[in-house]
Amino acid sequence: MTWEVLSIIGTIAFAISGAIVAMEEEYDILGVYILGIVTAFGGGAIRNLLIGVPVSALWDQGMLFQIALLSMTVVFLFPQGLLKQWRKWGNFTDAIGLSAFAIQGALYASEMNHPLSAIVVAAVLTGSGGGIIRDLLAGRKPLVLRAEIYGVWAIIAGLAIGIKLVTSPIELYLLFILIVCLRMASYIYNWKLPNKPLTTSNNSFNH
User: Fold this and answer.
1) Could you give the C-alpha distances from 152 to 47, 179, 206, in angstroms and in order?
2) pLDDT at 64
3) For residues 58 and 45, is the Cβ–Cβ distance under 8 A?
4) CB–CB of 176/127 below 8 Å?
5) Considering only CA atoms, which of 58, 37, 36 is closest in space to residue 47?
6) pTM here?
7) Which of 27-41, 49-63, 157-171 has the lowest mean pLDDT?
């Protein structure tokens, strides 16, 4: 298993995720491709801007762009029944993408000798930034910020790399597996962070 393979898996997962959201919102085929590309590569683009990597570095990932386009085309042509099957496994593949990209983002920032805060931000943006952009473009509340624990696992990956708790390739793979397992556990058992809604029931105004 190599990071290139993980990048491919993550790219496929996020591209398909963006395409499915676009189809749920009844976008045309151009909207499907745009939302899928943004989901797969948006987080990396923002990360590059913040940590000083040229955004043009994304264009060196020609193979990943081709894989993303192919994945979205296949999904667009899928019968509707098969898309329902994808959703059953989609969270697992998405967890793989989150873990792989969060670790990669943290490694990028660490190799550039950025402080811990920048390493954590790079991990979060690379792992979940594309999904945030996808949801905003689709007119939805970002899933990362309101559903089962998601972004926290990217923060943990960034901290582990930033404080040098994880350094060797074997440790990185173990961290990868751990983040995937934690993300899936939070989805299966519906773990949520505490929240405090400020909305007031309409009944309180009906006197």
Assistant:
1) 17, 10, 40
2) 92
3) yes
4) no
5) 58
6) 0.83
7) 49-63
Q: Which long-range contacts link 20-26 to residues 24+ away (Cβ below 8 Å)?
A: 20/75, 20/83, 20/86, 20/87, 20/90, 21/134, 21/135, 21/138, 21/140, 22/138, 23/75, 23/76, 23/83, 24/138, 25/138, 25/139
What pLDDT, on a 0 to 100 scale, did the predictor assign at position 204? 45
> Taking residues 87-115, what's their average pLDDT?
85
Task: State both tokens at 124.
Answer: 């979060």
> Which residue do the tokens 């993550």 mark?
10
Q: Is 195 left (phi over 0), alpha (psi -120 to 50) or beta?
A: beta
Half-sphere exposure of 162 (CA within 13 A, CB side): 21
Question: How much is the pLDDT for 75?
Answer: 87
Residue 45 three-state SS: helix
What's the CA dihedral at 66, 69, 74, 79 to 10 degrees? 170
| Distance of alpha carbon 164 from the chain centroid | 23
Tokens 């943006």 correspond to: 125
CA-CA distance, 181 to 27, in Å (whole number)? Answer: 33
How remote is the C-alpha of 98 from its chain's centroid? 5
Higher model confidence: residue 2 or residue 197?
Answer: 197
